[in-house]
Design brief:
Number of strands: 0
CATH class of the largest domain: Mainly Alpha
Structural class: mainly alpha
CATH topology of the largest domain: Serine Threonine Protein Phosphatase 5, Tetratricopeptide repeat
Distance between the termini: 97 Å
Number of domains: 4
Strand content: under 5%
Shape: globular
CATH superfamily of the largest domain: Tetratricopeptide repeat domain
Length: 659
Amino acid sequence: MRRALIGLIAICLIGLGIVTWLRRGVLGNPTTDAASHLFSIGNFSQSIHQIDSLTINELTTDKALLLANCYRRLGQIDRFEAALNDARKLDADREARNLAQRLLDTQIGKFAQSPDEQLHDLVSAGVEVNDAALAVVLGLVASNRVPATDQVFSLWESLIKPQSASAELLFARAIVNRTKENSQTAVEELLASIELFPDYELAYLALAETYAQPPRSDHRRAKQTLQFFVEKFPNNVEGIWRLATEQRKLADCESALVTLKKGQDSQNLHLARAEAFFDLGNYAQAVEEFKYAGLGRIEELVPQIDRAFSMTLAGSGGPAETLVKQVTKVSMALAFDRQLPLSSQLFAISLERVARIRRYIDLVSKQPIFVDDPGLTQALQATRTLTTPAPITPPQVGLPIPDSVSTHPGYSSYLKHCSHCHGVAGDGFGPAARHLFPLPRNFRREPLRIVSTTNRVASDSDLIHVIREGMPGASMPAFNNLSQSELESLIAVIRTFIYQGLQEQWSKLRDDDQITDDEFRDAWVENRSSPGAMLDIPVFPEPSKSTLLAGREAFLQVGCIQCHRLDDATVPQQWDVLGRPTPARQLSVDAFRGGSDCANIYRRIVLGIPGTSHPELTGVSQETLIALTQYVCSLHSETLAPNSNADRLQQLYSMQAED
């Protein structure tokens, strides 16, 4: 009996060994076979997940190379290089490793020969046609050689005939059309690709990116596409931070932060969290997230500025712009978080690099005129070499600081809290100003806009309100932790700037012969700098249907509709007293900068907005004013439009394009 049992166990063990041998030897490891299949259908992130589930002993050279190629197709170059290094450690075939590297070089635009020859060589070396051709097309797009893709597409189609269209071919055509700004055609091609090849994940990402592309950005469709993508491809971390980005652009930063909790720690994840916290006004947390992303110390940020500089000189302006925007956002977050020394240092270094680039462009333009000029060659080399002194001093824009301000006891507080945007001289030319829209207020050239007095000069309470609450729909943050004495000292400095500016404006009027003497100068300055009586605010009852109807009628009759359109019709362009664009608020979805309650809306209607084309409303009964105010309040939605600096500028560009 015992011998029979031992024999049975032996047979079972032998059978199990045979099955294991068949699975791993003849049939292959099912996990790795699944990874290869997933790669072939374009589900690269799931293929990576399958390979990552292997033990160290199960990871073969073939699978290490497959992992590298998955990262290549996803555009994750750092991870590609790490996987290729692992393949080298496993003693993978050198030719296979070199071929993977050639594919990546081709994909990022490094061509050793003509595109057609590159494609032929890759295919001859054993690369699958669609993979090789896609790498060539993407490389041409990356190197700004889009016209050359036409010939590659012809060759590609000839190589795959009589096969049907491939996912890669449809995807590549869509990318080229999007680059040519044929967005609708690109969308149609990507939708066709998804219908025919539902597992090709790059098509979903490209579709979302195409929906979000200016000037006809549709961030809602982009968000919906990415929501589906995240469910279908849960292992693709890029989808998570891209979805969060679209949610942030739709002013839903809280949802963006929830989405980002689903992803594993990565630089992109922390950058996306930093952007969301920045838009929420939580600058301290934004700074922390930038630190986690490796952008928290001067030793980390300066090399990024320098990489952007080198890339710009090499002609890669697009990728360089991404790096510059990151550093700029870090600098602004630091400034708003009161970390002014580091912020100032970063702004100064960035401006110095901008000065070098401008100088370099100027010198290059002279090369055809001064051929073989050794002095010109030396100047170009000095401009490119960051270890040499700056070739020119960055321009110092702005007005001189008045003595009456520089000696004021509150000026140090102003420098700490306000100067990065409003400038050390109160002229609106702080180092952060060039990145903001609308621009910070120029205290010396324009009136304050949020007012509550009958003579339309801002009172101390108006200034306190704006400083403490910030300005929704602009970059002015809330400084709600300042003491009363700090507020009073800041207000005193601002009023000194205003007074100085009015004196300067009077002098200019005199120089332009618009006035002949200084007899009325003091009265002129006093009338424009001293707040009048506060505007009385009526009681607003619960609005009835008839009140809202009367308010709508007033909205149409007094002319509000001419600027504040109630539909998607184009609104006329408007400018402030300094000639800068000031788009009218879209009352249903735009933030109200002076407050969205009825009392503040009433003030804007009755007093207008000084310094802009928004007029005072006079000659209207109190009953009509109340009805109009309540009607405007009823239009305002709890769901606001995207409201970052980029969103506001994009809205302006769209309006200009429609004119």
